[in-house]
Amino acid sequence: MKEKGNISIHTENIFPVIKKFLYSDNEIFLRELVSNAVDATQKLKRLSSLGKISGEVGDITVSVSLDEKAKTITISDRGIGMTAEEVKKYINQIAFSGAEEFVEKFKEAKDANEIIGRFGLGFYSAFMVADLVEIQSLSYQEGAEPVKWECDGSTSFEISEGNRTERGTDIILHVNADSEEFLNKSRLEEILTKYGKFLPVPIKFGTRTTSEPDGEDEEGKPKYKSVEVDNIINNTSPAWIKAPSELKDEDYLAFYRELYPFAEDPLFWIHLNVDYPFNLTGILYFPKIKNELDIQKNKIKLYSRQVFITDEIKDIVPEFLMLLHGVIDSPDIPLNVSRSFLQADSNVKKINTYITRKVADKLSELFKTDRKGFEEKWNDIGVFVKYGMLTDDKFAEKATDFCLVKNTENEYFTLKEYAAKVKDIQNEKEGQVVYLYSTDTANQDSFIASAKDKGYDVLVFDSPIDSHFVGFLESKVEKTSLKRVDSDVIDQLIKKEDNDQKLTLTEEESASVKSIFEKTIHKETYQVEITALKEDAMPVTVTMDEFMRRMKEMAQNGGG
Ligand code: ADP
Ligand code: MG
Prior knowledge:
Bound molecules: adenosine-5'-diphosphate, magnesium ion
Radius of gyration: 33 Å
């Protein structure tokens, strides 16, 4: 048997186009070919479980191997294999039915992911790195003959008798001169691990040495010997695909360490598991946030049926959820479309809403079942909750119940509790309640002390996100104004007759002290006031008008 043919009638040679266009992302050839090997293996397992396979399934490990001298990479599986007819159908025809469309549309596509898959070109991504691709396959079907397919990157292929004696498929890539980086063992293992770390079928990449117990020496101490074992690069049943009831805290933590070997343990996690109206599994972890100015986004990894796709999940989860870590696995997220299409996709919208609700529910549950623990973690959780409330209305609605504020006594309140606490005492005029807050408790302690003296409570809003959150609270909590403690504010709020301290300076003395200060500081930005204060308070205070302060802060935050 020997047959030659032409792949495409209408198009010229599309391989140079694929190669050139996809060059930047060419490592995904391995993802595509290994995924195909895994698919073929899964199909075989399914057929076997249905009793449709005679004989043993045997070892189903997929093997990736490298021959540096021959400059080949081989991906071998023991899946269902292909007959000559199937090779013609699935490799020649199906893939190339999309070719014409591809050539027309490739100009629009922004990255390789948009093309691969969308045009059914998964297999053909091999030509990004190889100038000759060979398939050796033997179908599981009884009486099947081994088949060989060969294509040199032009539009003509050749089918002939193959050499496989065992069921399954080898894809042999003769790596081209531009892609020799993939002939490096550690580079290849790196890519394989990146995409295949959690694939559902064992993936072997060469062997590795390990030590094994080997009896005892003369003194009775255990002896070890070196042995070569298969180097399996993946964990075939990662935590997220298991039922939450099967997993203990230790399992979730162990999985977190598997994902982020160098990170500190997370605070808590949410196991996502839904199959209607879309299919999605995953585990989201709340990390410890050490420094909120240095929060790392894009830590969530997106998988599709255990194949790693990307860690750029920008349009798939709401912005504030990007602070979380973990894994989302969904075959229902369209992976091969442009970003704008993704945002408009109805599944993606539903997934967004679902995740947001799950996160809010989890926080609410923690708050209700363990308030003390929740307060202890508030430093880390708070940034996230505030960010969520500022950017997502639906989340804000739910989070109002568990969003906490802290006062200078280190007491925590929900917004409702706090409103009830201060509504009678800090009621200024016409039902307007004033919330006082400090942005810097160390430097504002004299004002805090004065405010407390008058029976006022002072909140602490001292993190970068708080400057935005203050404005948010003001607009959301009815009839409330928030004021930062300074002498200006205290003078306005606290009834003057309560202040029994007398100014000991004469009017001229006050005026000259005031002018001395006004000469040295910027008069338009700061106000100088000479007033009598409590004995333990600072003798002189310079304050900045609240409006000026916020303006300045906004300017510093780059227009915030
Ligand atoms: P897709 O995987 O999206 O179907 P591909 O271009 O990756 O598209 O593969 C085309 C087809 O070729 C597959 O659907 C499958 O029928 C066949 N195929 C590819 N690789 C293998 C393999 N290793 N074993 C069996 N069949 C394969
Ligand atoms: Mg494929």
